[in-house]
Amino acid sequence: MPIVVNLDVMLAKRKMRSRELAERIGITEQNLSLLKSGKVRGVRFDTLSRICAVLECQPADLLEYRPGPEDEIEP
């Protein structure tokens, strides 16, 4: 998938554990783990907003676009 989740990087920068973030944003550790690993197909804007508020960051700090050959669009 061309979207990479850098949540683990931001957690390390903020010296915060996944458990604490999950508690503060109101989701389970399991769901946060799935998000961190990129195994989700989507994320709600309100969840993304709460993560950004707690980690004091922007969505672009958490999500990155890395195109691959499967992402090429033919004209």
What does this structure look like?
This protein has helices spanning about 5-15, 20-25, 30-35, 45-55, 60; strands at about 5, 65. It is mostly helical and about 80 residues long. Strands 1-2 form a two-stranded antiparallel ribbon. The longest helix has 11 residues, at about 45-55. The model has no long low-confidence stretch (mean pLDDT about 90).
Name the descriptors.
elongated, 75 residues, two-stranded antiparallel sheet, mainly alpha, 2 strands, 5 helices
Query: Helix tally?
Result: 5
Total beta strand runs:
2
- Using the alpha-carbon principal axes, give the shape: elongated
* Biggest sheet strand line-up: 1-2
Proportion in β-strands: 5-15%
**Helix proportion range:** 40-55%
Q: What's the topology here?
A:
Blueprint: E1 3-5, H1 7-13, H2 18-25, H3 29-37, H4 45-55, H5 59-62, E2 63-65
Antiparallel strand pairs: 1-2
Helix pairs in contact: 2-3
